[in-house]
Amino acid sequence: AKQLGRNNFQFYDAQLNAEGQARLQMEADIRLALEREEFVLQYQPKVDLHTGRIASAEALVRWRHPQKGMVPPLSFISLAEETGLIVPLGAWVMRTACLQNMAWRQAGIGPLRIAVNVSARQFARPDFVETVSSILRETGLPADGLEIELTESMVMEDVGNAIGVMTALRDLGVLLSIDDFGTGFSSLAYLKRFPISVLKVDQSFVRDIEKDDDSRMIVLSIIDLAHNLKLKVVAEGVETASQFDYLRSRGCDEIQGYFFSRPLDAAAFAALYGKHGET
Ligand code: C2E
Ligand code: CA
Ligand code: CA
Ligand code: CA
């Protein structure tokens, strides 16, 4: 029995080691990918339902892997967060997105807002506000051309600090959104104190808006809540004409989703803007 136990232990140990090895390999790969500039951004339009025009573009990162092809963010963002590599990666994303917005503006596209996702790990750094303001300075993008998407959980982790950081960002002129709204645990009492401009209704509620009474009630409640707090509401994950029509009829301010457009590379986004941006 003793022998068996020992073998089991070795087996378990070897498995842990294999996982550890894979993580270390992935970490090294991400580091190298940053150096080799293998990350790319795609941009998904958000359409203003009051004007019918593209108002904003959300930057979404992909890894153009030399062997694996286009790797989606969900397969590397969490490891990048755990290892801290999200800090240089996130700064690259923000700088690249701001530069792209400047290039569009110079080409007569816009002026649009560019929205960037930020991780808890970035947001919690004492130099985060300074990083944002130096990216704006370096790229020349006016602060109101940048929107930062935060999640409820990262803001609720340390509310006191988060309100300070959000206020400093707002004072720079940057717009703040709460992403995936409805899936976290932000208290309404705090929501009123957050210097934010937008609530993004999570796509899980939008998806079931027609089939499920609860989802529909949640979406309607979020629209009311946002408007009562003088915030805009964006619905994400809008895939069908009937979802689009319903949300428009209920006063949702902006929509984002495959119904209007998938995330696009910068050139395709510019072409789409040419067709729809001014309608
Ligand atoms: P998210 O911020 O909630 O972004 C929305 C996700 O939904 C994107 O997936 C987008 O492509 C997808 N989506 C958009 N419209 C539709 C639709 O109509 N139907 C469906 N089913 N999906 C739709 P993506 O690009 O794979 O990104 C996944 C997540 O990865 C993002 O969720 C965000 O949390 C994270 N992420 C992406 N880029 C970055 C980044 O630069 N930094 C950080 N920290 N996280 C990022
Ligand atoms: Ca987002
Ligand atoms: Ca989201
Ligand atoms: Ca999400």
Automatic annotation (TrEMBL):
It comes from Noviherbaspirillum suwonense. Keywords: Membrane, Transmembrane, Transmembrane helix. It comes from the Bacteria. The chain holds residues 629 to 907 of 908 of the full protein. The keyword Membrane applies. This is Diguanylate cyclase (GGDEF) domain-containing protein. The keyword Transferase does not apply. Residues 23-277 form the EAL domain.
